[in-house]
Amino acid sequence: MALLQISEPGMSTAPHQHRLAVGIDLGTTNSLVATVRNGVAQCLQDEEGKVLLPSAVHYLADGQIVVGRKAHSAQAVDPRNTIVSVKRFMGRGLRDVSHVETMPYDFVDAEGMVRLRTVQGVKSPVQVSAEILKDLRLRAERSLGGELTGAVITVPAYFDDAQRQATKDAARLAGLNVLRLLNEPTAAAIAYGLEHASEGIYAVYDLGGGTFDISILRLSRGVFEVVATNGDASLGGDDFDHRLFCWMLDNAGISLPSDRDARRLLMKAREVKERLSLDESVSIRMTLERGDEVDLTIDRSVFVDITRPLVAKTLKPVRKALRDAGLDAGDVKGVVMVGGATRMPHVQQAVGEFFGQIPLTNLDPDTVVAIGAAIQANVLAGNRAAEDEWLLLDVIPLSLGIETMGGLVEKIIPRNATIPTARAQDFTTFKDGQTAMAFHVVQGERELVSACRSLARFELRGIPPLVAGAARIRVTFQVDADGLLSVSAREQTTGVEARVEVKPSYGLADHEIADMLKSGFENARDDMELRGLREQQVEAARVIEATMKALDADGGLLNAHERTALDAAIGALQSAADGQDARAIKIQLEAFNRASNEFASRRMDKSIREALAGQRIDDLRI
Amino acid sequence: MAVTLSDKAATHIGNFIAKRGKGVGIRLGVRTSGCSGMAYKLEFADEVLPEDVVFESHGLKVLIDPKSLPYMDGTELDFVREGLNEGFKFNNPNVKGECGCGESFTV
After folding, report:
1. Contact between residue A186 and residue A393 where contact means Cβ atoms under 8 Å apart
2. Do A78 and A137 form a contact (C-beta atoms < 8 A)?
3. Which residues in B lie closer than 8 A to residue A143 (C-beta atoms)?
4. Among A43, A91, A372, A459, fewest CB within 10 Å belongs to which?
5. Pick from A237, A228, A293: which is nearest to A265 by CA?
6. pLDDT of residue B102
7. Sorting pLDDT into bands at 50, 70 and 90, what band is A516?
8. Which member of A15, A38, A40 has the closest CB to residue B103?
9. What is the 3-state secondary structure (H, E, C) of A247-311?
10. DSSP string across B24-61
């Protein structure tokens, strides 16, 4: 019979209505699955009682696919068909991958993403990752006694769109319903329960197997906000192994080892690295295929020396993230360490020195991300009572912006901004004496309004009549935790205000978002050109408008001949602006500026004379 | 009669409440639903309601609403492990039939 778990008060599920949700840390070196059971987040174990699943997939000639520890140990005997650290290839081309020359794989450079030729045919990194996810899904279903409602899968904070999409595709291929992709550092922060911590700035230093991430989080009133992220997509514990591997080759006098030996030496390097976190000195003994003997002893201090540049390399993104956030290391209240590589004492020491404090290491750095993902999955699956105050972190799937002159989009909140968020930007009037302004709120990545999705329109009336460009209208976009957008426009001097509320995520299905993103990327170049054209057209219209007004007021400053020349210049600019050639408009604009220069300086002289007339020199404050 | 916890169930519940950080005990009950008529309720309890019937077992409070009690009297809550799966199981002498999955029952 089915086994029951203890629910939160009032949250018992009806029979067959279990909302089983898991968090998955799909790591470069190891992957984990965790869930919340009986109110406690825990990593799920395999039959052997282990929680870490090595992210290794072994394709056998007989069609079998082996995942995990057994695959990991198959590296030495069948390196070509045993794929490890596949996360590095997700959504990447061959050129983006470092150390290709030391990898024993048969790479096939395909469009968009590199592929690997195995004994079972050419596999994409998405397929390889799906095997890992499938293994974790089966483990979870056996442990929880039912089908999963969904999963939260973590990704490095700065995974780009292609990498995130590849991760989602892998999950779908593995039969998982993705509730959300969650940034790894954010998951770690959730696991540490930082939302209950004291207010302030926290840093999450995540040195995993293959990726390094630094995130700066700000906590206030139990809500945390990602202020800045940075990192290095190709730096992690594997690189420490690689340094040690090179040191072993140098010191044992081995060059060009066979694929098999290279793999064995790399595995040895990893083992030695792990032991050096506990022991001051480790000896390395092994016999290679050609009979070469490796007999070395390495002290921790030597390991620290050869990997010092790698540790220093992690601090560069840390500095950048702090600079982006406008903060100093001293502003950081706590530093969370995530990732197995942060067990290395010299990494902890370097981070501690940088921030001037001892970093937090009390949770297991290997499981902390999966635990955070499980907590988030539990909330998303609806297993938490509403009174449990817990902020859902979400991001805006597509940029939100406003239409400006010429049908262009000014993006106010960029895509992937975490919500809740608020951003403001100042706009001004286009014409003299303009007392009303129409606002058009749009969503999308394209530069032109016509290619984006229209969300709402509203008007601001009662703007005091001023010359063009003098009014200050602050437009504020605010997205609350439920994804509800409200846009307000406020004229700064009089305080008149208008607002509208929209639900930006409503009505846009996932595939539509994907289509819009794709079209945004594909059309980026066209869009930029069109944007350039529209900007020139708007500028030309503005200049003509201003000149006509000036002529109305001070036309007398020009003689008939000069007036005809200026009118002709206006005509030439107007006809260029009616065309579709941004360069032609630009040239005409420059020509017009020269043609109207004299008129402008006469007007200037006149207004200075008027201003000075009848004033004593003492009254003029210069 | 009473409702009791097995040793294992009590140990686990004690741990879960400690890790959760709050709770006065657990609340058991039945609801009418499911394919065989009734389903169990198993929840953490943050407060004792005035109408609750309270049992003490292994030092833990077991709360039951009076309407559910007739269907559960004599029940022992056990904690079992089946392969990778682990969880709570009701050993209820009142049950006459269960649905295939055991999640709902008749009395």
Report:
1. yes
2. no
3. 84-86
4. A459
5. A293
6. 59
7. low
8. A15
9. HHHHHHCCCCCCHHHHHHHHHHHHHHHHHHCCCCEEEEEEECCCCCEEEEEEEHHHHHHHHHHHH
10. SEEEEEEEE-STTSEEEEEEEESS--TT-EEEEETTEE
Among B30, B44, B103, the strongest candidate for a mutation testing the A interface, having the largest count of A CBs within 10 A, is: B103
CA distance B60 to B50: 18
What burial letters (b/e) apply to A1-16, b meaning 16+ CB within 10 Å?
A: ebbbbbbbbebbbebe
Number of Cβ pairs < 8 A linking chain A and chain B: 92
- Interchain CB distance below 8 Å, A142 and B84: yes
Q: Cα separation of A386 and A382, whole Å? A: 9
Minimal C-alpha gap between B83 and chain A (Å): 8
- pLDDT-derived band at A535, boundaries 50, 70, 90: confident
Whether residue A8 and residue B80 make contact (CB cut-off 8 A), yes or no, is no
Contact A5 B35 (CB under 8 A): no
Check if the beta carbon of residue A114 is closer than 8 Å to that of residue A125: yes
Please report the pLDDT score of residue A482 as a whole number.
55
| Partner A, chain B 32-51, Cβ-Cβ below 8 Å | 33-35, 39-46
Q: What ranges make up the beta strands (E) of A145-278?
A: 150-155, 178-183, 200-207, 212-220, 223-232
Report the pLDDT value the prediction gives residue B100, as an integer from 0 to 100. 59
What is the Cα B39 distance to its own chain's centre? Answer: 11
Of B12, B15, B85, the CB nearest to A145: B85
**Mean pLDDT on B50-72:** 90
Give the burial class of A326: count Cβ atoms within 10 A of its Cβ; 0-12 exposed, 13-18 middle, 19 or more buried: exposed
User: Is the CB of A38 less than 8 angstroms away from the CB of B12?
Assistant: yes
A386 has a pLDDT exceeding 50: no
Residues A602-618 have pLDDT tens digits of: 887 887 777 666 665 55
- Across the interface, of A6, A9, A15, the residue whose CB is closest to B104 is A15
The pLDDT of residue A506 is 38
Mean local confidence (pLDDT), A377-396: 63
| Complex ipTM value | 0.83
Q: How confident is the model at residue A254 (pLDDT cuts 50, 70, 90)?
A: confident
- For an interface test with A, give the residue of B84, B95, B99 to mutate (most A CBs within 10 A): B84
Q: What is the pLDDT of residues B14-44, one digit of tens each?
A: 998 988 888 899 999 888 765 566 788 899 9
Contact A172, A511 (CB under 8 A): no
Q: How confident is the model at residue A43 (pLDDT cuts 50, 70, 90)?
A: very high
What pLDDT is recorded for position A283?
93
Mean pLDDT of A584-608: 84
Report pTM.
0.61
Nearest-Cα residue of chain B relative to residue A7: B43
**A4, A45, A142 ranked by CB distance to B40: nearest:** A4
Closest residue on chain B to A49 (Cα)? B84
Between A607 and A115, residue with greater pLDDT? A115
Q: Which positions of A are annotated as active-site residues?
A: 25, 87, 184, 206
Give the bridge partners for B57, in sequence order.
B60
Residue A399's H or E segment, with its range, is none
Query: Long-range contact list for A104-108, CB < 8 A, 24+ apart?
Result: A104/A79, A104/A80, A104/A259, A104/A262, A104/A263, A105/A80, A106/A80
- B64 close to A (CB below 8 A): no
Contact A3 B99 (CB under 8 A): no
